[in-house]
Specification:
With 382 residues, this protein is α/β, with parallel strands linked by helices. It has 13 helices and 12 strands. Strands 2-8-7-6-5-3-4 form a 7-stranded mixed sheet, with helices on both faces. Strands 9-12-11 form a 3-stranded antiparallel sheet, covered by helices on one side. Strands 1-10 form a two-stranded parallel ribbon. Helix 8 links the parallel strand 5 and strand 6. Helix 3 packs antiparallel against helix 10 and helix 4 packs across helix 10. The chain binds pyridoxal-5'-phosphate. Pyridoxal-5'-phosphate binds next to helix 5.
């Protein structure tokens, strides 16, 4: 099996305190919010900036908008995101969402017209799998590799890739169980067959370190509303030498440029999202993604150790270096009741009790969570 696990024992146990993070997110003091994998609460500083902008939009004068609706803000946001993933700013385009980014990649590679295939897996996002199944119906050769015990086995991936493969598409961190794919090996496999690697990083950007160069990522996309802490728009990374050559721009509009990854942009970007991201990315930078990841690790490590003893089997591989951990739930309604009583929020899916096979609980921890949140969850379920 291959995945990315943290090998440092010190990293797994040492508590990293992120000063002031709890106060920055007032939501955290109203309920035990262990659900950032769905959506991150807004930070106080991002809200202040957006309120100022909304005030200008509501009351004018028009000149007040200049502070927010300007190219400088967008350039800075692009620059900060580029730094976060070790790309050049010219390799980043704005996009409305992760899935829009993935569609732009699928369209721009001319996969179907060239008789090529695309390989993905069932730890990818459900919405992306809807996309792939629809493309399969329209004639595209789509191969969906199955996980083994909630991990990706490279041998299974290797069996599906051949010289006609144009793209391997995966989620760097799976939303299903937080599994971190070994993207370096997957990228090497793609490149050895003349194919490219696309990574959906919405469950990774801002939470785990990303280095597109070291990881061999050719394209990536994400939205900002999860680990990037808000703003409903997204980013598309396209490796410089693939822009306009391997990856053609197929949709055009007022923001499409002749050069750089902005060639894949179409419409006006959300200024409100940009104002939010301008603050949020500065905040993430000030904490440092390595420290954010190190903060999460002891929390998820404890959950993975203690919840199975209470009857919740973990479906996240041991040692997974992400802030997301998922569990099988035998009795969903009883679990839902207990969590509600304890004022704890997770992602709980599935409908009823033991007879229907139960459901699943996904727990995710961000910068504002602490061991007392974990105590509350374990206390509610143990
Ligand atoms: C892995 C993954 N990809 C994509 C999405 C959806 O992204 P977007 O709304 O930006 O298209 C989600 C949302 O939960 C997700 O978890």
């Amino acid at each position: 099996m291959s995945g990315v696990a943290l090998t440092s024992a010190a990293g797994a146990t040492a508590a990293v305190e992120l000063d002031g993070a709890r106060a920055e997110f007032p939501w955290a003091s109203r309920e035990v919010y262990l659900n950032t994998a769905t959506e991150h609460p807004l930070g106080a500083r991002t809200t202040r900036a957006m309120e100022e902008y909304l005030h200008a939009l509501t009351h004018g004068p028009d000149s007040a908008r200049e502070k927010f609706e300007n190219g400088r803000l967008m350039v800075e946001v692009k620059g900060m995101f580029a730094r976060l993933v070790n790309a050049k700013p010219s390799e980043i385009g704005f996009t409305p969402s992760t899935q829009t980014g993935e569609n732009l990649v699928l369209e721009g590679l001319d996969i179907q017209a060239s008789g090529g295939n695309v390989v993905t897996n069932d730890l990818h996002y459900g919405g992306s799998l809807v996309n792939y199944r629809n493309r399969r119906k329209s004639g595209m050769d789509v191969r969906i590799v199955k996980h083994r015990d909630y991990q990706m086995d490279m041998r299974d991936l290797e069996k599906s890739v051949n010289k006609k493969t144009k793209l391997i598409a995966i989620a760097l961190v799976s939303n299903v169980n937080g599994y971190v794919h070994d993207v370096k090996s997957i990228g090497d496999l793609a490149h050895a067959h003349g194919a490219y690697l696309y990574c959906d990083v919405i469950q990774a950007a801002g939470a785990v370190p990303i280095d597109v160069k070291a990881m061999g990522i050719d394209f990536l996309a994400c939205s900002a509303y999860k680990w990037l802490m808000g703003g409903r728009f997204g980013y598309l990374y396209v490796r410089e030498d693939l822009q306009g050559t391997a990856l053609k721009a197929k949709l055009f509009g007022g923001r499409s440029t002749e050069t750089g990854a902005s060639r894949y942009e179409i419409s006006t970007v959300s200024h409100l999202g940009c104002v939010c991201q301008h603050q949020a990315l500065q905040y993430i930078q000030s904490l440092g993604v390595e420290r954010i990841a190190a903060h999460a690790l002891p929390l998820v490590t404890r959950l993975m150790k203690e919840l199975p003893a209470a009857g919740y089997r973990s479906i996240t591989p041991a040692g997974t270096a992400s802030p997301i951990v998922s569990f099988d739930v035998k009795d969903v309604s009883a679990t839902r009741d207990r969590l509600k009583k304890a004022n704890v929020v997770t992602t709980l899916s599935g409908t009823s009790g033991e007879t229907s096979g139960g459901g699943r609980m996904r727990v995710s921890v961000s910068v504002f969570n602490n061991q007392s949140d974990v105590d509350r969850l374990i206390g509610a379920l143990a």
